[in-house]
Amino acid sequence: MSVRKVVKLGGSVWDTLHPDYMTEWKNWVEAGNELILLHGGGPRLSAYCESQQIKPVFQNGRRVTTEDVLTGATRVLAGEMQTEIVTALGRSDMNAVGLSGVDGRMLTGRQIKELGAVGEVETVDVSLIELLVQNHYVPVVTSILFGTDGALNCNGDDCAVAVACALQADHFEMITDVPGIRVNGTFHETLTVNEMQQAIESGDIYGGMIPKTEALRSALSGGVALAIIRDGNNPTATGTQLKEGHDERTTSHIWATSH
Fold first, then answer.
1. Which DSSP letter does residue 65 get?
2. What is 174-237 written as a DSSP string?
3. What are residue 182's DSSP bridge partners?
4. Confidence class of residue 134 from pLDDT cuts 50, 70 and 90?
């Protein structure tokens, strides 16, 4: 029986992604399983804005997506970076198709107006993804939403979780740049969701790791069977295993990630 995997590929790790991931994904697809990739690209977008001398704008400490930044996002995420990923998959004998949430109105968003052209995922229409995976393609999706007044930039992790839950994926993987979930400075091989929450509340999990762990929890809550964080530079790393509780049925391997 086919197993459905949704992978969130962090923008910070793509340029240094270990090549064995391509082999792993090729073997996965050739075994008759389904693979859907979603990707970020924050560092590339920041570099673009710097090269274009686009100054960052903030509202109450949060970055605003201006029209110039949105233009950069479509050029860099849905253009340059996505083409690189699709090409790399093709060189590894996988047939990939690049998409954004605008295609087929796959991901519609509600605009957060105080942040400019930024949106939260409102609806997910998976029919286009279903059509592609049924015909043995690998969809590669970037986090640009269809909005009523134009395209919207969106947090890549939030998009990935929304797609994984809408597809009722068997596996959800976040591939980034750290070897595991660190609690109070120490990487743990196993954590329950309750332990994770307590560690966040106590400050033992902090900074950029918090949204990653919360994304994993959201995926589990949304019906994904297995939630995983992995190190993009070391595909064989054991990482951290996250569990919903004591029921092994809801175990999620977090081989883990980044911030």
1. B
2. EEESSSS-EETTEE-SEEEHHHHHHHHHHTSS-TTHHHHHHHHHHHHHTT-SEEEEEETT-TT-
3. 187
4. very high
Q: Which of 46, 151, 38, 48 is nearest to 96 (CA)?
A: 38
d(CA 105, CA 122): 11
DSSP string, 108-160: EEEE-GGGBSBEEEEEE--HHHHHHHHTT-EEEEESEEEETTEEEE--HHHHH
3-state secondary structure of 99: strand
Q: How far apart are CA 34 and CA 152, in angstroms?
A: 28
Can you tell me the distance from the alpha carbon of 245 to that of 62, in angstroms, rounded to the nearest whole number? 34
Question: Could you identify the residue written with the tokens 């790790």?
Answer: 13
Token couple for 117: 């052209």
CA dihedral 33, 34, 40, 44 (to 10 degrees): 70
Q: What is the pTM of this model?
A: 0.89
Q: What local confidence, expressed as pLDDT, does residue 48 receive?
A: 93
Domains recognised in the chain with CATH numbers: 1-169 (3.40.1160.10), 175-259 (no CATH)
